[in-house]
Amino acid sequence: MQSLSTERWTAVTGAEGHALQVQALAEARRRPADRIVLGNWADPALLAGETYDTVLADYLLGAIDGFAPYFQERLFARLRPLTAGRLYVVGIDPYVPADPPRERAAHIVWRIGRLRDSCLLLAGERPYREYPAEWVVENLRRSGFEPVSAERFPIRFGRRFVEAQIAMCAQRLARLADRALAAALESHAAALRDEALAHVEEAGSLPCGHDYVIAAEPRRA
């Protein structure tokens, strides 16, 4: 983002740790008008009265359920008054469906996702809830936007994904009072990590699902 020609930018996150991380990364090139805002999109006062030529919802739809439960259907209507020019929605199709995938790599990713979500719930946190691109397009139209383009990109998960997801599990399991349950899940996580990394070593990646980018503009009266 800092490589683009802009007058100013505002970054919004609901996670204090993420805000500090972005601040550290961007500090050297931040201008006085550039802002990092810690807030919740369910709060009507957040960025009230402001407008932006470009709004980037970067994996926001799936993540917001952890901070503003049941707000996802209202997210794009919430972003509509802020968007003067174009909204870009970056997301990921759900990859932890109810039924297990048949393809081996997708099945491994599915199991990692189920384990991660279980650990989050046991730790008292809410997992992300992703929506498919088709749902996004329909909701954008209901929210006063007109989609102008959409594209999917195949995902090939690698070592970094595996390590990050298993590390997320470990952080939550460390907080469980039931240490026997935590130990069993830690053992399962370690075995799943080894299986996933072995597949990455053998096949180069874990192909599973798609990211998508959807561009939309405010519908004019």
Describe the 3D structure.
With 221 residues, the chain is of the alpha/beta class. The protein is 40% helix and 23% strand. The chain has a four-stranded mixed β-sheet. A two-stranded parallel sheet has the order 1-2. It is globular and about 55 Å long. The two termini are 31 Å apart.
Helix and strand pattern: EHEEHHEHHEHHE
Distance between the termini: 31 Å
Q: Outline, from the CA principal axes?
A: globular
Largest sheet: 4 strands, mixed
Residue fraction in strands: 15-25%
Number of helices: 7
Helix content: 40-55%
| Number of beta strands | 6
Mean pLDDT: 95
* Spans where pLDDT lies below 50 across 5 or more residues: none
- Adjacency order of strands in the biggest sheet: 3-4-6-5
Structural class: alpha/beta
Radius of gyration: 19 Å
Topology:
Elements: E1 10-13, H1 16-26, E2 35-38, E3 52-58, H2 60-63, H3 75-79, E4 83-92, H4 104-122, H5 133-142, E5 145-157, H6 159-173, H7 179-203, E6 206-218
Parallel strand pairs: 1-2, 3-4
Antiparallel strand pairs: 4-6, 5-6
In short:
This is Class I SAM-dependent methyltransferase. This protein has seven helices and six strands, in the order βαββααβααβααβ. It has 221 residues and is an alpha/beta fold.
List the main descriptive attributes of the protein structure presented here.
single chain, 221 residues, two-stranded parallel sheet, 7 helices, 6 strands, globular
